[in-house]
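User:
Hi there, any thoughts?
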Amino acid sequence: MSYSLDFGWLEGAVGAIARGAAMTVLLIVVTTIAGTLISVLAAAGRRSGPKWLRRAITVYVEVIRNTPFLVQLFFIFFGLPSIGIRLDPIVAAMLAMTLNMAAYTTEIVGAGLDAVPKGQREAAFALGLRPRQVFVKIVLPQALKVIFPALTSQIVIMMLESSVVSQIAVSELTYEADMLQARTFRPFETYFVVAMIYLGLSIILRRVLVGVGRRTLSAGVS
C-alpha cells in the first residue's frame, strides 16, 4: 500500500500552528519562573524550616513525583470543581505544570544547596552577614551554578510535557495539531510538522537558558 505525502494544507495552517506554539511558549515561561521560585523556597525550607514545614514539603514532593502528570492535571481541572474551585483551562494548566516542575526541581535545587561547602556559610556568618544575606548572596548563586545543567534539562522536559494539557482543551501546539489532523485527515504530515516544531523549540529553549545562565551566573557570587 503506497502513501502519498501531501503538505498542501500547511500554508493555511500556519496561523493555527503559530498560535499553538505561542501558547506553549507562554506556558513554559510562566512555569519556569513560578516553578523555579517555588523550588528554591521549598528546598531552603526543607533544610532550615520548622519540622512541620519540612514534612509538608517532603509529602508534596513525594506525591507529585510518584503520580502521573495527567492525573494531577485532571485532579486540578475536573476534581477541584467538586469542592467549588473552578479554574480556567489555561490557569489549571499553568498550576499543574508549575506544581509538577517545582516538585522535581526542589530536589535538584536541594542537591545544589547541599553541594556548597559549609565553610562558605561559616565564613559569611563570621563577617556579620545575616542568614538571609548568606543564602541569597553566598549559597544560592553557587548552588545554581552546580545544578544549572540539570535545571535546564528539567525545564525542557516540562515544555515537552506541556502537550498533555491539550486534554483539557488548552489551545497549545498539540491541541492545534489534533484539530488540524481532524480537518485535513493527514495525521502523518501533521504530527511530523509538529514534532519538528517541538524539536526546534527545545533547541531554542536550551540555548536561551544556557545564554541566560552564562550572563547571570558566570560572575560568581557578587
About this structure: The chain has a mean pLDDT of 92. The chain has one domain: 15-217. The longest helix spans residues 10-48. The chain is about 80% helix and 0% strand.
